[in-house]
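In this supplementary section we document a worked example of the pipeline. Step one takes a protein sequence of length 392 as its only input; no multiple sequence alignment statistics are reported here. Step two produces a three-dimensional model, which step three serialises into structure tokens for compact storage. The input and output of this example are shown verbatim.
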Amino acid sequence: SKQRFYQSSGINAEYGYGMSLRAAQRLTQCGTRFVSSSFTRSSEKAKHPGSKTNFTDELQFLNPHELPSVPTFRVLDNKGTFTSKDVPEIPDSKLVEIYKTMSLLSKMDKILLQSQRQGRISFYMTCSGEEAAIIGSAAALEEEDTVFTQYREVGVFLWRGFTLHDIMHQCFSTHKDNTKGRQMPIHYSGKKINIQCVSSTLATQVPNAVGYAYSNKIRNKPAVTVSYFGEGAASEGDVHAAMNMAAVLKCPTLFICRNNGYAISTSTEDQYAGDGICVRAIGYGMRSLRVDGNDFFAVYKAVSEARKVAIENSCPVLIELMTYRVGHHSTSDDSTAYRSIDEVNYWDREDSPVGRLGRYLAKNNLWDTEQDNTYAKEVGWLINAAILNKVN
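The serialised model returned by step three reads:
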């Protein structure tokens, strides 16, 4: 019945993969088939090489402002309560380990930011406010999945086994760094953990990831290649070329976009007029979804399912993680020049991804304030010890 509905409604069955009949009917009722439901369709199909549609005798423009926006998938609200039945099955011990890694990342960011201000390192970029987007997606991947990060995903390195000493060697440019101290800080490289070297040039990792995914495809390797980037980088031509290539060649690629609200000082209002980044996937002919990037459970579930779809169908998937960059863009930026302190404080205090997961753990007696304080002191000592070890 679903297939008949797709055919009668003009929905491409490939786009409808994984969609319930009810969802497909609702999609049609909303007019989001990207063709107005009021079009009168001829039974005659257009024969143009670039067309896959029927003819119509009506002249009608598509108006994006008349279409509903794509909803944001959420599992856990900011009070630590489940709002969805679609909860991923994760052992309690792994949840605690994930929370500890997120807390470690947050603490490390603060200390290395201070190190830069003290002149000990030349540059740094924090992940503050985006811990769930980064750690949640990393935890949902497998070791055989190759990762191409941008520059705010050190949490992926941490989750995969990069040690504090590895990070300090890189940031302090010592001879024990994987690149022998020849790269500027935060340009990590993790060959042993299947993560490619970070590059300064914006979005160049995206087409590289697609090429790598294509090589996996022709070798029949059951793995995905993951490319992280921000919504600002999505304006680069490299992203367009990469997505089109991945869709046409059907490369098992996960495009993970961290939409954190700002491309340095440029807000999303000044970046694009459309409905964010995930809708662009439709134009390329690939699947996509939008997720609450501050909700670890939603990120984990979305990436886990997207990985399955990409491998089973040998196709790309775009995931837009809606989050917020609490820190400055980098140590070269002063975000108080273009956004208010009240705005930052809301996301830092009211909807922190670390705090949200922590509240869930506390409600379920998996973690408490005393453990939190003890762990904060422990990781502070470990981070400072790693720094001292590198400096001396």
